[in-house]
Amino acid sequence: MVNANHFYHENFSHLDDLAIDDESDESSSSDTEDDGEEFSFRQIVQLRKIFDVDRYGCFGKWCLFLAAAKHRRWEELLKPVPLYHNGTFDIQRLLFVIDHTPTLTAVHLAIVDENYVECNRFVIQLLHYVFVKKSEPMLFTISDFKFQKLIKSSGVTMNGPYPTDVFDLQVDDDLEERPGLPNNRKFGFYGASPARFYSILSNGYVKSLKSETNDESIEPTRIHLTSDFSASLSHSDKEPYWYELSPGAVLRCVALCEYKDHPDCVQYKKDSNQKYIDIFLTKGAEFRIWLIMFFKEVIPALPPTSTLQCHSAKLKSGKRIKLESHQKFT
Protein backbone atom coordinates (compact mmCIF):
# COMPACT_ATOMS: atom_id res chain seq x y z
CA MET A 1 0.00 0.00 0.00
CA VAL A 2 1.30 3.43 -0.97
CA ASN A 3 1.10 6.21 1.59
CA ALA A 4 -1.57 8.70 0.53
CA ASN A 5 0.72 11.58 1.49
CA HIS A 6 2.86 10.67 -1.49
CA PHE A 7 0.02 11.79 -3.73
CA TYR A 8 -0.74 15.04 -1.95
CA HIS A 9 0.83 18.46 -1.64
CA GLU A 10 -0.37 21.52 0.23
CA ASN A 11 -0.38 23.56 -3.00
CA PHE A 12 -3.19 21.31 -4.24
CA SER A 13 -5.29 21.42 -1.07
CA HIS A 14 -8.04 23.42 -2.77
CA LEU A 15 -8.61 20.84 -5.52
CA ASP A 16 -11.06 17.96 -5.81
CA ASP A 17 -10.27 14.55 -7.27
CA LEU A 18 -11.25 13.85 -10.83
CA ALA A 19 -14.23 11.55 -11.27
CA ILE A 20 -13.23 7.88 -11.19
CA ASP A 21 -13.97 5.91 -14.34
CA ASP A 22 -15.60 2.77 -12.93
CA GLU A 23 -15.42 0.95 -16.27
CA SER A 24 -11.65 1.19 -16.39
CA ASP A 25 -11.21 -0.04 -12.82
CA GLU A 26 -13.28 -3.16 -12.45
CA SER A 27 -10.66 -4.55 -10.11
CA SER A 28 -11.55 -2.03 -7.41
CA SER A 29 -11.88 -3.78 -4.08
CA SER A 30 -14.16 -2.73 -1.22
CA ASP A 31 -11.86 -3.92 1.56
CA THR A 32 -9.30 -1.17 1.05
CA GLU A 33 -9.23 1.55 3.66
CA ASP A 34 -8.68 4.37 1.15
CA ASP A 35 -10.22 3.81 -2.28
CA GLY A 36 -8.78 7.09 -3.57
CA GLU A 37 -5.27 6.05 -2.54
CA GLU A 38 -5.64 2.59 -4.04
CA PHE A 39 -7.07 4.02 -7.21
CA SER A 40 -4.17 6.46 -7.57
CA PHE A 41 -1.71 3.58 -7.35
CA ARG A 42 -3.58 1.61 -10.02
CA GLN A 43 -3.53 4.71 -12.21
CA ILE A 44 0.25 4.87 -11.82
CA VAL A 45 0.56 1.23 -12.90
CA GLN A 46 -1.62 1.85 -15.95
CA LEU A 47 0.28 5.01 -16.86
CA ARG A 48 3.59 3.20 -16.72
CA LYS A 49 2.32 0.63 -19.23
CA ILE A 50 1.35 3.42 -21.62
CA PHE A 51 4.64 5.29 -21.16
CA ASP A 52 6.66 2.10 -21.57
CA VAL A 53 5.08 1.48 -24.98
CA ASP A 54 5.73 4.94 -26.44
CA ARG A 55 6.29 7.86 -24.10
CA TYR A 56 7.12 10.22 -26.95
CA GLY A 57 3.84 9.37 -28.65
CA CYS A 58 2.16 10.46 -25.41
CA PHE A 59 4.17 13.66 -25.63
CA GLY A 60 2.54 14.38 -28.99
CA LYS A 61 -0.98 13.94 -27.63
CA TRP A 62 -0.12 15.95 -24.50
CA CYS A 63 1.03 18.88 -26.67
CA LEU A 64 -2.32 18.90 -28.47
CA PHE A 65 -4.20 18.65 -25.16
CA LEU A 66 -2.26 21.61 -23.74
CA ALA A 67 -3.02 23.66 -26.85
CA ALA A 68 -6.76 23.03 -26.45
CA ALA A 69 -6.79 23.59 -22.67
CA LYS A 70 -4.93 26.90 -22.89
CA HIS A 71 -6.77 28.17 -25.96
CA ARG A 72 -9.09 31.17 -25.62
CA ARG A 73 -11.82 29.00 -27.16
CA TRP A 74 -11.24 26.07 -24.84
CA GLU A 75 -14.98 25.61 -24.29
CA GLU A 76 -15.31 24.60 -27.94
CA LEU A 77 -12.05 22.72 -28.41
CA LEU A 78 -11.60 20.88 -25.10
CA LYS A 79 -14.42 18.36 -25.33
CA PRO A 80 -15.09 16.17 -23.50
CA VAL A 81 -13.71 17.85 -20.37
CA PRO A 82 -12.39 15.96 -17.32
CA LEU A 83 -15.11 16.18 -14.66
CA TYR A 84 -14.73 16.13 -10.89
CA HIS A 85 -16.59 13.90 -8.44
CA ASN A 86 -19.45 16.39 -8.13
CA GLY A 87 -19.92 16.46 -11.90
CA THR A 88 -18.52 19.98 -12.34
CA PHE A 89 -15.59 21.33 -14.31
CA ASP A 90 -13.37 24.29 -13.53
CA ILE A 91 -10.90 25.44 -16.18
CA GLN A 92 -8.82 27.31 -13.59
CA ARG A 93 -8.34 24.12 -11.58
CA LEU A 94 -7.32 22.27 -14.72
CA LEU A 95 -4.80 24.95 -15.68
CA PHE A 96 -3.42 24.93 -12.12
CA VAL A 97 -2.71 21.19 -12.32
CA ILE A 98 -1.26 21.56 -15.83
CA ASP A 99 1.11 24.29 -14.68
CA HIS A 100 2.33 22.01 -11.85
CA THR A 101 2.76 18.94 -14.06
CA PRO A 102 6.40 17.93 -14.63
CA THR A 103 7.60 16.74 -18.02
CA LEU A 104 6.35 13.32 -19.05
CA THR A 105 9.93 12.08 -18.92
CA ALA A 106 10.21 13.14 -15.28
CA VAL A 107 6.89 11.50 -14.40
CA HIS A 108 7.86 8.28 -16.18
CA LEU A 109 11.25 8.08 -14.46
CA ALA A 110 9.64 8.78 -11.07
CA ILE A 111 7.21 5.90 -11.63
CA VAL A 112 9.98 3.53 -12.75
CA ASP A 113 12.11 4.48 -9.74
CA GLU A 114 9.04 4.21 -7.45
CA ASN A 115 9.72 7.78 -6.39
CA TYR A 116 6.09 8.45 -5.52
CA VAL A 117 6.89 11.75 -3.83
CA GLU A 118 7.09 13.16 -7.35
CA CYS A 119 3.79 11.51 -8.36
CA ASN A 120 1.24 14.06 -7.19
CA ARG A 121 -2.25 12.57 -7.02
CA PHE A 122 -3.90 15.28 -9.10
CA VAL A 123 -1.21 15.21 -11.77
CA ILE A 124 -1.53 11.43 -12.03
CA GLN A 125 -5.30 11.68 -12.31
CA LEU A 126 -5.06 14.18 -15.16
CA LEU A 127 -2.45 12.17 -17.08
CA HIS A 128 -4.50 9.02 -16.55
CA TYR A 129 -7.54 10.80 -17.99
CA VAL A 130 -5.67 11.92 -21.13
CA PHE A 131 -3.73 8.73 -21.87
CA VAL A 132 -5.78 5.88 -20.37
CA LYS A 133 -9.41 6.90 -19.99
CA LYS A 134 -9.35 8.79 -23.31
CA SER A 135 -6.76 6.57 -24.93
CA GLU A 136 -8.30 6.56 -28.41
CA PRO A 137 -6.82 7.56 -30.68
CA MET A 138 -3.25 6.98 -29.61
CA LEU A 139 -0.28 8.67 -31.25
CA PHE A 140 2.86 6.69 -31.98
CA THR A 141 6.27 7.88 -33.07
CA ILE A 142 7.62 6.52 -36.32
CA SER A 143 11.14 6.34 -37.64
CA ASP A 144 12.40 8.67 -40.34
CA PHE A 145 12.72 5.66 -42.66
CA LYS A 146 9.08 4.68 -42.19
CA PHE A 147 7.97 8.26 -42.61
CA GLN A 148 9.78 8.55 -45.92
CA LYS A 149 8.31 5.23 -47.02
CA LEU A 150 4.76 6.31 -46.16
CA ILE A 151 5.17 9.59 -48.03
CA LYS A 152 6.49 7.76 -51.07
CA SER A 153 3.71 5.17 -50.96
CA SER A 154 1.02 7.86 -50.77
CA GLY A 155 2.30 9.62 -53.88
CA VAL A 156 2.42 13.09 -52.30
CA THR A 157 5.37 15.47 -52.29
CA MET A 158 6.85 17.28 -49.30
CA ASN A 159 7.81 20.69 -50.67
CA GLY A 160 8.37 22.59 -47.46
CA PRO A 161 10.24 22.43 -44.15
CA TYR A 162 10.94 19.02 -42.69
CA PRO A 163 8.78 18.19 -39.66
CA THR A 164 10.38 18.25 -36.24
CA ASP A 165 8.16 15.36 -35.08
CA VAL A 166 5.92 12.85 -36.86
CA PHE A 167 3.19 10.78 -35.21
CA ASP A 168 1.25 7.85 -36.59
CA LEU A 169 -2.37 7.32 -35.58
CA GLN A 170 -3.46 3.91 -34.39
CA VAL A 171 -5.63 2.45 -37.15
CA ASP A 172 -6.97 -0.96 -38.12
CA ASP A 173 -4.67 -1.48 -41.09
CA ASP A 174 -1.40 -0.06 -42.29
CA LEU A 175 -0.74 1.89 -45.46
CA GLU A 176 2.62 0.36 -46.20
CA GLU A 177 1.25 -3.18 -45.90
CA ARG A 178 -1.18 -2.71 -48.77
CA PRO A 179 -0.02 -4.26 -52.05
CA GLY A 180 -1.61 -1.40 -53.99
CA LEU A 181 -4.05 1.38 -53.36
CA PRO A 182 -7.37 1.32 -55.25
CA ASN A 183 -7.73 4.02 -57.90
CA ASN A 184 -10.39 5.84 -55.88
CA ARG A 185 -8.12 6.18 -52.84
CA LYS A 186 -6.10 9.39 -52.82
CA PHE A 187 -4.11 11.49 -50.40
CA GLY A 188 -3.91 15.12 -49.46
CA PHE A 189 -2.63 17.43 -46.74
CA TYR A 190 -4.74 19.08 -44.07
CA GLY A 191 -3.47 21.98 -42.00
CA ALA A 192 -5.05 23.18 -38.76
CA SER A 193 -4.04 24.60 -35.41
CA PRO A 194 -2.81 22.18 -32.70
CA ALA A 195 -5.90 22.91 -30.57
CA ARG A 196 -8.13 22.14 -33.55
CA PHE A 197 -6.37 18.83 -34.09
CA TYR A 198 -7.04 17.82 -30.49
CA SER A 199 -10.75 18.49 -31.01
CA ILE A 200 -10.76 16.47 -34.24
CA LEU A 201 -8.96 13.50 -32.68
CA SER A 202 -11.24 13.52 -29.64
CA ASN A 203 -14.56 13.99 -31.38
CA GLY A 204 -14.13 13.28 -35.07
CA TYR A 205 -14.23 15.96 -37.72
CA VAL A 206 -18.01 16.32 -38.03
CA LYS A 207 -18.71 16.42 -34.30
CA SER A 208 -15.83 18.82 -33.79
CA LEU A 209 -17.33 21.27 -36.27
CA LYS A 210 -20.72 21.08 -34.58
CA SER A 211 -19.23 21.67 -31.14
CA GLU A 212 -17.80 25.00 -32.28
CA THR A 213 -21.30 26.31 -32.92
CA ASN A 214 -23.04 24.36 -30.13
CA ASP A 215 -25.65 23.40 -32.71
CA GLU A 216 -26.07 19.65 -33.20
CA SER A 217 -28.37 20.17 -36.20
CA ILE A 218 -25.90 22.14 -38.29
CA GLU A 219 -24.30 20.44 -41.25
CA PRO A 220 -20.49 20.44 -41.29
CA THR A 221 -18.67 22.69 -43.71
CA ARG A 222 -16.36 21.32 -46.34
CA ILE A 223 -13.09 19.74 -45.30
CA HIS A 224 -10.32 21.59 -47.11
CA LEU A 225 -7.35 19.49 -48.16
CA THR A 226 -4.66 20.46 -50.64
CA SER A 227 -2.23 18.62 -52.85
CA ASP A 228 0.47 21.05 -51.75
CA PHE A 229 2.17 20.62 -48.41
CA SER A 230 3.30 24.24 -48.07
CA ALA A 231 -0.22 25.51 -48.71
CA SER A 232 -1.64 23.29 -45.96
CA LEU A 233 1.11 24.39 -43.57
CA SER A 234 -0.02 27.98 -44.11
CA HIS A 235 -3.53 26.92 -42.97
CA SER A 236 -2.18 25.98 -39.54
CA ASP A 237 -2.15 28.92 -37.16
CA LYS A 238 0.97 29.28 -35.06
CA GLU A 239 0.10 28.61 -31.44
CA PRO A 240 2.30 28.79 -28.34
CA TYR A 241 4.29 25.63 -27.73
CA TRP A 242 3.25 25.05 -24.12
CA TYR A 243 5.24 21.89 -23.44
CA GLU A 244 8.51 23.76 -23.05
CA LEU A 245 8.83 27.22 -21.55
CA SER A 246 10.89 28.50 -24.46
CA PRO A 247 10.28 32.19 -25.18
CA GLY A 248 8.79 32.61 -28.64
CA ALA A 249 8.31 28.88 -29.26
CA VAL A 250 5.32 28.11 -31.50
CA LEU A 251 3.82 24.97 -32.99
CA ARG A 252 2.00 24.21 -36.24
CA CYS A 253 0.49 20.93 -37.43
CA VAL A 254 -0.23 19.28 -40.78
CA ALA A 255 -1.84 15.89 -41.33
CA LEU A 256 -1.48 13.43 -44.17
CA CYS A 257 -5.02 12.28 -44.97
CA GLU A 258 -6.44 9.54 -47.15
CA TYR A 259 -9.81 10.09 -48.80
CA LYS A 260 -12.09 8.19 -51.15
CA ASP A 261 -12.42 9.94 -54.48
CA HIS A 262 -16.16 10.05 -55.22
CA PRO A 263 -17.78 12.65 -57.53
CA ASP A 264 -20.73 13.18 -55.18
CA CYS A 265 -18.67 14.30 -52.20
CA VAL A 266 -15.23 15.35 -53.51
CA GLN A 267 -14.64 18.58 -55.40
CA TYR A 268 -11.40 19.81 -56.96
CA LYS A 269 -10.44 23.40 -57.64
CA LYS A 270 -7.33 24.90 -59.18
CA ASP A 271 -6.90 28.58 -59.89
CA SER A 272 -4.92 29.64 -62.91
CA ASN A 273 -2.26 31.31 -60.76
CA GLN A 274 -1.65 28.38 -58.41
CA LYS A 275 0.30 25.21 -58.96
CA TYR A 276 -1.56 23.02 -56.48
CA ILE A 277 -5.09 21.63 -56.26
CA ASP A 278 -7.60 22.47 -53.54
CA ILE A 279 -9.58 19.41 -52.46
CA PHE A 280 -12.95 19.89 -50.78
CA LEU A 281 -14.65 16.96 -49.07
CA THR A 282 -18.38 17.43 -48.52
CA LYS A 283 -21.04 15.51 -46.62
CA GLY A 284 -20.64 11.75 -46.92
CA ALA A 285 -16.97 11.84 -47.83
CA GLU A 286 -14.75 9.12 -46.40
CA PHE A 287 -11.40 10.22 -45.08
CA ARG A 288 -8.96 9.39 -42.34
CA ILE A 289 -5.86 10.93 -40.83
CA TRP A 290 -2.72 8.82 -41.21
CA LEU A 291 0.07 11.03 -39.92
CA ILE A 292 0.30 14.22 -37.89
CA MET A 293 3.42 16.30 -38.42
CA PHE A 294 4.66 18.83 -35.87
CA PHE A 295 6.57 21.94 -36.88
CA LYS A 296 8.17 23.67 -33.92
CA GLU A 297 10.02 26.92 -34.30
CA VAL A 298 11.25 29.77 -32.16
CA ILE A 299 10.35 33.26 -33.27
CA PRO A 300 13.36 35.46 -32.49
CA ALA A 301 12.76 38.50 -30.33
CA LEU A 302 12.73 41.78 -32.22
CA PRO A 303 15.62 44.15 -31.44
CA PRO A 304 14.77 47.41 -29.69
CA THR A 305 13.49 49.98 -32.21
CA SER A 306 13.58 53.13 -30.14
CA THR A 307 15.85 54.92 -27.71
CA LEU A 308 13.33 54.36 -24.92
CA GLN A 309 13.24 50.61 -25.60
CA CYS A 310 17.04 50.52 -25.55
CA HIS A 311 17.05 52.26 -22.19
CA SER A 312 14.42 49.87 -20.88
CA ALA A 313 16.50 46.87 -21.94
CA LYS A 314 19.59 48.30 -20.22
CA LEU A 315 17.66 48.99 -17.04
CA LYS A 316 16.46 45.39 -16.93
CA SER A 317 20.03 44.22 -17.35
CA GLY A 318 21.15 46.35 -14.39
CA LYS A 319 23.27 48.71 -16.47
CA ARG A 320 23.28 52.42 -15.64
CA ILE A 321 22.34 54.77 -18.47
CA LYS A 322 22.79 58.46 -18.99
CA LEU A 323 20.12 60.49 -20.72
CA GLU A 324 21.85 62.78 -23.15
CA SER A 325 20.65 66.35 -23.59
CA HIS A 326 19.32 65.67 -27.08
CA GLN A 327 17.28 62.64 -25.92
CA LYS A 328 14.01 64.10 -24.69
CA PHE A 329 10.69 62.52 -23.99
CA THR A 330 7.92 63.97 -26.11
Termini gap: 70 Å
- Beta percentage is 15-25%
Number of helical stretches of at least 4 residues: 10
CATH architecture of the largest domain: Alpha-Beta Complex
SSE order, as H and E?
HHHHHEHEEHHEHEEEEEH
Task: Sketch the major β-sheet.
Answer: 6 strands, antiparallel
Indicate the mean pLDDT: 75
Q: Could you say which overall geometry the principal axes of the C-alpha atoms support?
A: elongated
Low-confidence stretches: 1-10, 20-35, 172-181, 207-213, 315-330
Counted beta strands: 9
Helix content: 25-40%
What CATH first level of the largest domain would be assigned? Alpha Beta
Question: Could you outline the blueprint of secondary structure elements for this entry?
Answer:
Elements (H helix, E strand, L loop, with lengths): L34 H35 L4 H4 L13 H9 L4 H9 L8 H13 L5 E3 L2 H11 L10 E5 L15 E8 L1 H10 L1 H9 L9 E4 L2 H6 L4 E2 L8 E12 L5 E4 L8 E4 L5 E12 L8 H10 L14
Antiparallel strand pairs: 1-2, 2-9, 3-6, 4-8, 5-6, 6-9, 7-8
Helix pairs in contact: 1-4, 1-5, 1-7, 7-8
Report what the structure shows.
Strands 1, 2, 3, 5, 6 and 9 form a six-stranded antiparallel beta sheet that branches. Strands 4-8-7 form a three-stranded antiparallel beta sheet. Residues 1-10, 20-35, 172-181, 207-213 and 315-330 have low confidence and may be disordered. It has two domains: 4-133, no CATH class; 139-298, Phosphoenolpyruvate Carboxykinase, domain 3 (Alpha-Beta Complex). Helix 1 packs antiparallel against helix 4. 28% of the residues are buried. The chain is elongated. It is an alpha+beta fold. The termini are far apart. The chain has ten helices and nine strands.
